[in-house]
Amino acid sequence: MELRYHWLIIFFISALLANAQTEEIKVSVENQPLSEILKSLTEEYNFQLSYNSFELSKYNLTVQKSFKTPEKTIRYLLKDLPFQIINSGNVIIIAQQRTHSLFKQQDQRCITGQILESGSNEPLPHSQLIVNGHQIFTDVLGNFNYISKDDSVFHLQVSHLGYFIMDTVLLPNENHTIELKRNVKKLKEVTVKNNIIEKSALIGTRPGNLKLNYQISRYLPGQGDNSVFTLLRLMPGIQATGEQSNDLVIWGSYEGQSLITFDEFTLFGLRNYNENINVVNPFIIKSIEIDKGGYEAKYGNRVGGLVNITGKNGNRIKPKFSINLNPSTINGIVEIPLFHKSSLIVAYRQTYYNIYDLDDFNVFALSHSKQDVFNDPQNQNNVDPDISVYPDKYNFKDINLKYSHELKNGDIFYFSYYRGGDVFKLATEAELERTKMEVGGNMDNNNDNTLLFDLTYNSKEKNLQQGFSSFYNKKWGNGNISKLIISHADFSKDIAEEVSSSDSNTQDIFIAKENQTTNKALENSVRSENIIYINKGYKFEFGGGIYFNRTKILDNNNYTDKSNLDTVNQNKNYRGYLFAQQSIPINNKLKFVAGLRGNLIFNSQKVFAEPRASVSYRFTDALKIQASWGLFNQIMYKIATVDIDDNYTYLWTTGKDNVEGLSATHWVSGINYSKNNFIVNIEGYYKTTRNLSRRYFSQTENNEFINNQYLTYKGNARTYGVDLYLRKDFGYNTVWASYALSKAEEQLSTNNEPLPDYSPAPHDQRHEFKIASLINIRNFYISTCYIYGSGMNIIKDMFDNQTGMEYNRVDFAVTYSFHLKKLTCETGISILNVFDTQNLTPRNVKSINISEDISPIKVYTDAVPFTPIFFVKARF
Questions:
Q1: What is the model's pLDDT at position 261?
Q2: pLDDT of 9
Q3: Which of 144, 294, 97, 326 is nearest to 221 (CA)?
Q4: Averaged over 446-463, what is the pLDDT?
């Protein structure tokens, strides 16, 4: 009986095969590129092909013919063309006819190519390739090169965050173009397929490194314009408690010690009040890569972390337009194909009314009237500042322009430009009651010592940032790469503050002061980077360049009862650098990378050497350990200025002459486990920073004359801690969590005094826990995130270690994706700070000293309050 069924099954399969054999393959095309013909055959007849789309697109064919087999079809199409076919199992490989080559002379075989996004030909930077079992990564333009003396055929697995994995076989000594399709299907509904690389981040490839899937950021709580930093603040090792919008605290680094670049030029940052708008337009972003510490020798100029943001090159196939509308801004981008293999991108954002203007409708303060804001801080949950006030006005606008062009030989050139600015205004008046302090700092409850006084505070801040870069990527005939980068960035900040206070009864003036601060920063650079590929995916990198920096700090301080204090600091420097680094394979499990970076300060003729080293060992396919060490220098940095009321302002400055700037040593180690869509990553770090400086307002009395000045304190800092990151991907969903245990300490003194013992730094925070989830149910994306921080030291000092210094915030978002003819649309609602928790951030609290016998007055503007946001996005 069983034998009869076996014969029936065999007969049925044979019939199917015979029917498949007799199905005719019809080709009816007129003057179409060969690459498009093969693409159509693959879709209609399920051909299994591997070919170089770029090379085949050079040939147009006219064919009216039918064929019996796929192989006969391909052979006919390639007739009289310089190609050959090779059968590899069920896959037909189309390769260029072999010619005499440099690699053949050296008995080496090489594959080179570029990873592109299917449909737009947008390069995909930092993609991961597994070539015959060896892991390599593409560069910022998606280029790769792999050389082997032993292999004749190369099996590749190509992956990029948010795209389907490509598994293919390629022949050596050829240049290949590999297109990856987005892992979001544009069908009747949007479905996110189960794919581990589609999720939030790629972590553990090297010590302290993160690659983020920027595509998921639009589904996280927010309003679109802040999606980049919303995603960044959810990552391990990046402090979220201070709600930084543009300057990140990474592994305990101070403000200004971490470098943020966009298309190779520096972003100095805007104010971006309450993180509603980030300095980088999310529509133009292609990739985000983070190095928290211990990074390679090709990176420099900072003693903290690095955030490298790469912009799109633009769609070179068809025009594309996207728009985002939310309660504060309108944001649009257009991508226009120009000429042959060129594209122009124009992106523009702006606020379309004065956000926070209490005289107008304001979605950000619906529950707060003017009377509430000025006089009744009962909405505060933990600490009651003396005055809780919303800004009067906030305006923002920025523009991105980018032109890119691909040459016939595969070289790529682009020019990227950015300009953005914002204006922030705050004004308040209040009548306050205070009990005078007794000698020794205790409160005196005698009614005769109760003081009633008026306080007026006005503040205006204006920021302007612009920058551009010219980038040329040269692909040599042997697969090696050279890059030339010219960049410019400049930044200006103007702050004006007025404070006055008088006795409500006698009108006696307690204080009256005006402060004006101007800060300017400029950076120009010319750089070259080169990559020489070596056997088995390893490479030698070297390069160098020149930087020019200039900064200016102007302080004008006018006091009623004290001498005026006016200071001007202008610095500039020229410096050159060289770097070289080499990957050294010990065996298939052990990898060692050594590098050296040298800096020459032309002003002082000083040389700073920065040796770097890292090692990784893979125990199994799932388990890897790694460590790194290095020396780092920073010539351009932010110096903290502490005013007469102990308020901090961070301003850009640069070293000159004998000023050395900052120097640091990083020690990093980690362990990574990844299996069955579950990731565990643990990293520990220890960083020491030298030549730290801070300016303090100081008063000295000489013969009854009070002298005001800023004294510079110098010293050292150290930060150490451990990060734990967990992520589980299941079905169409992902959940990740991180915990950071850290400590940041410093020791500062004037030049004439010995350094004290270490004490907590202003941004020191012991614990931070973050958890986020993204759930996809048909067309709906549901996202939640929760952040807890044990409290920053500077806030604890401001409020004398009261309770309620912790940071707690829950955000929630629902996004619905749908199609209207040619439009791809997304709409939804985000709720920021769902439970309206009061969160104190140092940049939103202003301390004002009225007199010696009255405790300081705290003027507070809310961190992100309970904020429901409705948004609409459209793409076509």
A1: 92
A2: 45
A3: 326
A4: 79
Which residues does 301 contact at the CB level (< 8 Å), separation at least 6?
Answer: 259, 547, 634, 635, 636
What pLDDT, on the 0 to 100 scale, is given for residue 16? Answer: 44
How far from chain centre, in Å, is Cα 142? 18
The dihedral sign for the CA sequence 335, 338, 344, 348: negative
Give backbone dihedrals phi and psi of 702, rounded to 5 degrees, phi first. Answer: -135, 110
Average pLDDT, the chain: 80
Residue 391 reports pLDDT greater than 70: no
- What proportions of the chain, in percent to the nearest 5, are helix, strand and coil? 10, 55, 35
Q: Which token pair is 164?
A: 């389907």
Which of 233, 246, 394, 255 lies closest to 328 in space, CA to CA? 394
- pLDDT tens for 241-272 read 877 666 788 999 999 999 999 999 999 876 66
Say if CB 149 and CB 108 are below 8 A apart.
yes
Q: Are 460 and 495 spatial neighbours (Cβ–Cβ below 8 Å)?
A: yes
What does DSSP say about strands 174-180 and 109-117: parallel, antiparallel, or unpaired?
parallel
Distance CA 214, CA 274 (A): 21
Burial, 58: exposed, middle or buried (Cβ in 10 Å; 0-12, 13-18, 19+)?
A: exposed
Q: Which single residue is written with the structure tokens 């090692």? A: 615
Residue for token digits 């090169």? 145
What Rg do the C-alpha atoms of the chain give, in angstroms? 31
How far apart CA 396 and CA 464 sit, in angstroms, is 10
Nearest to 736 by CA among 775, 767, 789: 775
CA quadruple 500, 503, 509, 510: dihedral positive or negative? Answer: negative
Residues 388-393, mean pLDDT to the nearest whole number: 69
* Residue 292 · residue 305 · CB < 8 Å: yes
The phi, psi pair for 185, rounded to 5°, reads -75, 130
**Pick the residue with more confidence: 576 or 183?**
576
The tally of CA atoms less than 13 A away on the side-chain side of residue 146 is 27
Quick one: pLDDT at residue 576?
A: 94
Banded model confidence at residue 280, pLDDT cuts 50, 70, 90: confident
Q: Is the dihedral of CA 37, 43, 47, 52 positive or negative?
A: positive
Q: Could you tell me which residues are beta bridge partners of residue 344?
A: 336, 403
Question: How many residues make up the chain in this entry?
Answer: 876
What is the tens place of the pLDDT at every residue in 48-97? 777 777 778 778 888 888 887 888 888 888 887 888 776 655 677 787 76
Residue 875 backbone dihedrals phi, psi, to 5 degrees: -135, 140
Which residue carries 């700073």 as its tokens? 608
In sequence order, what are the residues at sequence separation of 6 or more whose Cβ sits closer than 8 angstroms to the Cβ of residue 471? 263, 264, 412, 413, 414, 415, 416, 483, 484, 485
DSSP class per residue in 462-518? EEEEEEEEEEEEEE-TTS-EEEEEEEEEEEEEEEEEEEEEEETTT--EEEEEEEEEE
**Residues with Cβ < 8 Å from 26, sequence gap 6 or more?**
65, 66
Residues 729 and 428: their CA atoms lie apart, in Å, by: 49
3-state secondary structure of 16: helix
Determine how β-strand 306-311 pairs with β-strand 259-262: parallel
Does residue 867 carry a pLDDT above 70? yes
603 confidence band (pLDDT: 50, 70, 90): confident
Residue 656 CA neighbour count, 13 Å, CB half: 12
Question: Which helix or strand (DSSP H or E) is residue 376 part of?
Answer: none
Question: Rounded to whole angstroms, how far apart are CA atoms 176 and 53?
Answer: 8
Let me know if 835 is exposed, middle or buried by CB neighbors in 10 A (0-12, 13-18, 19+): exposed
Which strands sit side by side in the sheet containing 154-159, from one edge to the other?
A: 134-137, 128-131, 154-159, 166-170
Does position 789 have pLDDT exceeding 80, yes or no?
yes
